[in-house]
Amino acid sequence: MPSPAGPHLPGSFTKNFAWHGKGLLKLHEGIRRGFSSNLQPVTRQAFRSACGLDDAGFLLAANFFLFNTPVGPNNIIPVDELVRQAVQEPHSSAFDRLGLFVLNLSLGGRRVGNNVGNEYPTQWANEFVRQSLWQAGRWQRGALEESGMDSFLASRIRAGAPAKRKMRSNYRHIFELVRYLPNPPGPIDSDPQSWAAGALFTAWDRRGLTASSPRQTAASLIAASIAEEDYKLLGITVEEFRELAEPIAGQYELARGLQRLQPTVHRTGGATTAVATASGATGPTISAPRAIAPLSAPTSAAAADLSWLTTASATDAAVARQIEQRLAQKRNQLLAMRLKAHYGHTCMACGSRLAVGLDPERFYSEAAHIKPLGKPHDGPDSPDNMIVLCPNHHLQFDRGIVSLEATRGGFRFVSHIPKDPIHHRALTLEPGHALDASCVTWHASLFRSKTT
Ligand SMILES: [Zn+2]
């Protein structure tokens, strides 16, 4: 776990960088222009003159999002996933949330020397998320309210009250632009499925750029992310993070990590020909051990674009199919995990919670699909086809010995076991969780169909 530094200096975060709506469109455009629509590293100076948005407000703020690294006398902005998306993909809300993530990741900008040592200019934002915004597995609304931010800034920032107010309003402004603010009461749903893949690709790119060893395996990527508490920057629990990140890390490894951003080659017959990178730039001819098409990370784990593998070998295509299936499985596991956590792992049939260790907060439950997934039933993999059960009741439910029936106000359990105490017990659904009645009707016929 990274140790807290500071107190921090406010740096240029006190300058006004109002971006006037449209999410982080200005950042997206600025990066694309700053890189002249190429996936080639640029000097800070070249970026500044090419981005065409030569106002101090944009350039100062862009500094918080872009990575840069000294190479000889120059300060270089390398290509990472954030840059790749800005150059190659249209602006989207997923890009905006990636932007917020990299701001909070705080591996951007110049390392600034000051009295308290070297730090990244948004190091405080990283600490804010990990120590204040994230509590009990979610982003908590209160931390983003003005009083919540003010108490964090009061304890961590060495500056006068006006500077702290400016930092607070600038930071909240980003949350407004990416539409996490204003938000309804309760924990904030960060919706990480829509942007986690891009976020983790960027985090791993940046760590790879500073790592002494470029070798990154899926396991080492996940370990580093957990050590750095990336899950807090995604607004999820560490268990949810493992589920979500595992297929993304596998994909990152398969995509050859940072190497995916390098020019690549195809072997056609005996000839080796340089092919354009996805940006359209033609790279130098280099020898490659395998023919693999230019790679791109999915902007969303939910809609992983694996089209880059269609031109690769049959083996690669098979791997892609497996990854696609695993991504879908993991995505659904995340849904199930959230539902189980929502019910505190309490069996909806018998009300029991199964302890599985000495930790008083750790319980085990299962998410039961009312209408089974896959052929031939093809039940939907969504919470409206799921209930939370203990393993015993899950087994009985899957056999149809225990079922559900609709009542005037909702649903109740039906048990075919004589004198079963759960027979005719009402099913209590938490707010925000409804069931698909057609799935319940389907399930109710399961016992009849098996006994006749
Ligand atoms: Zn039970």
Oligomerization category of the chains in this entry? single chain
| Quantity of strands, as a count | 13
Strand order of the largest sheet: 1-3-2
Low-confidence stretches: 112-117, 264-315
Roughly what is the average pLDDT, rounded to an integer?
A: 79
Main sheet properties: 3 strands, antiparallel
What is the rounded distance between the termini?
59 Å
Beta-strand proportion: 5-15%
Shape type: elongated
Helix content bin: 40-55%
Query: Pairing-aware structural class of the strands and helices?
Result: mainly alpha
Helices and strands in order:
Elements: H1 25-34, E1 42-43, H2 44-50, H3 56-65, E2 69-71, E3 74-77, H4 81-88, H5 93-105, H6 123-133, E4 134-135, E5 138-139, H7 141-144, H8 146-156, H9 161-177, H10 196-210, H11 218-227, H12 230-234, H13 238-254, E6 265-268, E7 271-274, H14 314-342, E8 354-355, E9 363-364, E10 366-369, E11 386-389, H15 391-399, E12 402-406, E13 411-415, H16 437-451
Antiparallel strand pairs: 1-3, 2-3, 4-5, 6-7, 8-9, 10-11, 12-13
The structure holds zinc ion (ZN).
